[in-house]
Structures are given as structure tokens and as C-alpha cells.
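Assess this one:
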Amino acid sequence: MQIVPLVAVPSQTLTITLANQTCQIDVYQKSTGLFLNLSVNNELIIGGVVCENLNRIVRDLYLGFVGDLAFIDNQDSEDPVYTGLGTRFSLAYIEASELPPGVG
């Protein structure tokens, strides 16, 4: 598992290499929750996904992403909000080898 570096701002975009995949991750807060878009090599893999504590974001192999992403509440079991990004809430990249067989 690798922690993706985020900061406590309401909207951010970062580029990071995960399992030899050039990823762009957009994280943004709306009134209805925190959301995430994931692109690999400038191709959208998944967009507008609501971020929930310990709930995998990508989930499906057919999307072509190796591994998965999930938010972790480091203090309790709340869903993430931007004010706690980088401290209370961490975005974790879960390597394919850490997932159950047939997933990610």
C-alpha cells in the first residue's frame, strides 16, 4: 500500500505514478461529499466517484487500472472531507497483489 499525498484544499489535481501507470487524480469537494476522478495516460478510467471510508474506488478489472484506491479515516470511521485530507483522511493506493484474487 502506498499513500497518495493530498492537501486540505477543496479541489486538487495531482499526477503520480502507481504501478508504472501515469495517473492523474482529481479530488474535489461538493455539498454532497468528496469526489474523485482517475485518469491513466490522459484517459479517464472512472469519474465522479463519491469517496467513502474504506470503500474501494475503482473495483473492476475491466476498467484497465492495476490496483485500486481507497480513503482511510485515520481517527474513526467517517467519510472523508477536504478539511482533513493529508492528516485525518489518507488516500491509499492498494497494489494488485494486496487485493483478493480476480480484483484489480
